[in-house]
Amino acid sequence: MPDLATPLIAWYRGAARDLPWRRPVFGAWGILVSEFMLQQTPVARVIPLLEAWLDRWPTPAALAADPPAEAVRQWANLGYPRRALWLHRAAAEIRDRHDGVVPRDVEALLALTGIGDYTARAVAVFAYGDRHPVVDTNTRRVLARALEGRSQPAPPSKRDLAAMAGLLPADDVDAAIVNAAAMELGALVCTARTPRCDACPIAHICAWRAAGYPDTGDARRKQARYEGSDRQARGAILRALRESAAHELRQDAVASDWPDAAQRDRALFTLIADGLVEASDGFLRLPRGASA
DNA sequence: CAGTCGTGGTG
DNA sequence: TCACCAAGACT
User: Fold this and answer.
1) Where are the alpha helices (H) located in A127-260, listed in sequence order?
2) Is pLDDT above 80 for A1?
């Protein structure tokens, strides 16, 4: 196994972006919120909304004290609005189970709503400095190329965690940097479309480069078309509710111009099932929560 | 395991 | 122009 850690650490020192959540004082809650927002949403779109979020809700308890509707509205156009609901639930769980303190233990983090293998370890490592493998889509691509000689990674797997764990130095601080550096390399250099191999600090040990950059195929799931999809219909309904000054709309007026009425109704049904929308007496609202 | 879930920038 | 892509998680 080639040593990736040493060149990655050296490269990261000089090339890492100055991102808000990397500031030493950012705090575990800020890290947690940033990780929720970064799930499938690009960094540049997250930064302004993250800062607004933390200005409004500087602690988990502050967020949990407001109704989920406020979280969904503040989420704005980040996409996948279930994440706003889940972040609100996680905040309440942190208040109720952990005295309002973001837990440090990976198992406790995994038990929170909306937190999976990536986010749990990202918080434990980047907020608390513990030694765990953190594997995101960037890291999987870097390892697929450098170690397996593939052009694109296989679908996510539990094996990814073990593979990354095997690359981490013994020291906690160094291990955290290697985790961050692998992600950063994938984001800046070892990119999905046009990798900048001339600027890569591990090009000399890259199996994909040694093999002549073969196209090994792409086993990733392809995204469904968005235009005309149920997701677009859901987005239109939720946008109308977010932007409603009265915080409610007549059900027969929401997305009334949507071309496919059956699709609109189906989208609304799933939004209600997801807890993103509440319906009563002919009106739709964002969720106000169980307690008054 | 495979399907589902937003939104906007970009090559 | 339009398909691809983006610090995933849940069912």
Assistant:
1) 137-148, 159-165, 172-188, 207-210, 230-242
2) no
- Is the pLDDT reported for residue A291 higher than 60? no
Residue A258, SS3? coil
**Residues of A recognised as catalytic:** 35
What are A44-82's pLDDT values in tens digits?
A: 999 999 999 999 999 999 999 999 999 999 999 999 999
- In one letter, which amino acid is A7? P
**What's residue A2's pLDDT?**
79
Per-residue flag: A193 CB under 7 A of strand B: yes
Mean pLDDT, residues A183-204: 98
- Residues A150, A216: Cα–Cα separation, whole Å: 6
Residue A248, helix vs strand vs coil: coil
Angle between helices A230-242 and A68-75 (to 10 degrees): 110
Domains of chain A: 28-126 (1.10.340.30), 230-285 (1.10.10)
pLDDT at A289: 86
Find, among A123, A106, A98, A109, the residue nearest to A31 by Cα.
A123
How many Å from the CA of A83 to C1' of C8? Answer: 10
Provide the terminal-to-terminal Cα distance of chain A, rounded to the nearest Å: 58
Mean pLDDT, rounded, for A18-24? 97
Q: Do A203 and A209 meet the contact criterion of CB atoms below 8 Å apart?
A: yes
Establish whether the CB of A213 is closer than 7 Å to any nucleic acid atom in strand B. no
Taking the C-alpha atoms of residue A249 and residue A288, their distance in angstroms, rounded to an integer, is 14
**CB proximity A157–strand B (7 Å threshold):** yes
Phi, psi of A217 (to 5 degrees): 85, 170
What are the backbone dihedrals phi and psi of residue A56, each rounded to the nearest 5 degrees, phi first?
A: -80, -40
Tell me the average pLDDT across A105-131.
Answer: 98
